[in-house]
Amino acid sequence: LENPVPENKLLEFRKEHLGKGLSLSYDKPLHIVRGEGVYLIDKDGQKYLDTVNNVNHVGHQHPKVVQAGQRQMAVLNTNTRYLHEEIVQYAEMLLKKLPPHLSVIHIVNSGSEANELALRMAKTVTKNEDFIAIEVGYHGNTNAAMDVSSYKFDALGGNGKPKTTHVLPLPDSFRGKYTGENCGIDYAAHTKEIIQRLKVEGKEIAGFIGESMVSCGGQIVPPSNYFQEVYKHVRNAGGICIADEVQTGFGRMGKTFWAFELYEVLPDIVTMGKPAGNGHPLAIVACTEEVATKFNTGMEYFNTFGGNPVSCAIGRAVLEVIEEEKLQENALNVGGFLKFELLKLQKDFPIIGNVRGEGLFLGFELNNSNKEPLPEQTNYLMNRMKQLGILMSIDGPDHNVMKIKPPLVFSKENAEELIARLKTVFAEDFLKEF
Ligand code: PMP
């Protein structure tokens, strides 16, 4: 293929030679060639404001992160079987961000791999096989991670729920199974019910895995007392509690560094990914001393790339930038401003059924007056926003939730621009007649 490759050729080649399930965003796909801060830039130099990318956490191509990678790549990149400063310095810095009972980390290369390891740890520690997970949750593309991902096994092409997985209803207090003040208890009670049902069959659980805000489920914010109740039931049954912070971690919540902290629970295992390396494949499993010790059965856990000096140098630079540029604080302030503005917008445009989220992890959904989802209108909104230079993404089981999870360098001006463009599109006929 010639270089630059014409777009129709890029598309044809992808269709023929890349995985057949690989999707493209937007009705007319974008050809992005560069990133810079909160912007993605296409081949013609058109800049798009990126409200989607929670991977490029401290901004696309952040110079400090790029330099850290370049510097270390030019010196050494090997596996973890030699002594080296980088892995120790990174681990030390990351552990300072976690509650003290989580004192051991394993470094891997993707969120899927992190959850795969976490699930294996829980199985090894408890000697049980069964997991409890949340409806429409997603935890990765490996076999074990897929087995606890209702987002996949319950959706098109999925094979349904595996025998060893037990699903809690999506704790959606807007239009889920339960609503109202105490719905957290009602949602969590299913945990107990599952555990009791298994007991009758002579089975016990290995643990529970869940995001503290259900991203793929549509930016669902579980009720305040939900996780404390779920964890209580799981722990009473001897299970391990795994918090998946792949999307929600590293300061995005604003109020707290991790989403589980909003719910005042202490997981036994925390998995991290996406933002850890700002786009470089870096993911982590943090666990208690007890879990780490019991997992060490004598068999080595080896990971060729995990924890190499380049990944660790990049990871450390990401943590430094979060601190130096006060990005958690920015998530709190800009996220708070944006949520307030979205709530104002909802008053003018009742098609916005619900606005939710924390920090720079927000979502709003489009519904008719009966709270029924409006996926076509949501798709229209996303594609129109792209035409106006703003990238947004859709998720949720009914494809009617707009997710907002930009790089944390998103500014108040960026938020104002987003709101102004949303106002323009919401005033268009297609979104007025629903
Ligand atoms: N957990 C969650 C919550 C995720 O959103 C994802 C990716 N979307 C994963 C795990 C898997 O991470 P990866 O794609 O890096 O394997």
UniProtKB/TrEMBL annotation:
Superkingdom of this protein's organism: Bacteria
UniProt similarity note: Belongs to the class-III pyridoxal-phosphate-dependent aminotransferase family.
Protein name: Aminotransferase class III-fold pyridoxal phosphate-dependent enzyme
UniProt source species: Aequorivita ciconiae
Residues of the full protein shown: 567 to 1000 of 1000
